[in-house]
Amino acid sequence: xxxxxxxxxxxxxxxxxxxxxxxxxxxxxxxxxxxxxxxxxxxxxxxxxxxxxxxxxxxxxxxxxxxxxxxxxxxxxxxxxxxxxxxxxxxxxxxxxxxxxxxxxxxxxxxxxxxxxxxxxxxxxxxxxxxxxxxxxxxxxxxxxxxxxxxxxxxxxxxxxxxxxxxxxxxxxxxxxxxxxxxxxxxxxxx
Length: 191
Fold this sequence. Notes:
Elements: H1 2-10, H2 17-20, H3 25-36, E1 42-45, E2 52-53, E3 58-59, H4 61-72, E4 78-83, E5 95-99, H5 104-113, H6 120-130, H7 134-145, H8 151-160, E6 184-189
Parallel strand pairs: 1-4
Antiparallel strand pairs: 2-3, 4-6, 5-6
């Protein structure tokens, strides 16, 4: 359904979802790739984790067709796929980049730039707790600035694990920040 919506958008409504709703997945992906080939732009497919076979380090089903088609595309469009599990494709057009969290120094800089006034030891502690996850650190800094949470209380709650330590969306799946895996891999398919 996402591919169909993208097709509708890049054709500016000339190809409607209803027009291709009877197409099979492979046909919809082929149509998308043909349209995308003419666009000098970047298509980002964020957080494709649920479409990855972790044991084989490959995307599955429609996502595999999309990645495989993108690697073979001769068009000008570029494609970026992000996910936590490692993906392995033997192709010169496939590049995997492992992304790491912010360092302690970078986390301190983030809090400084955002003008978050907290004791440096707590900044270091939250960096360790989140493994430097940029989104979480930025959300925490925003929450502190908005006076919706105090960093000391957030850290205490996380250590006690009596309730969710993070009050922001990315942390909802489990009880504390320390339970979250944040190792992301980004796959870029150059033209």
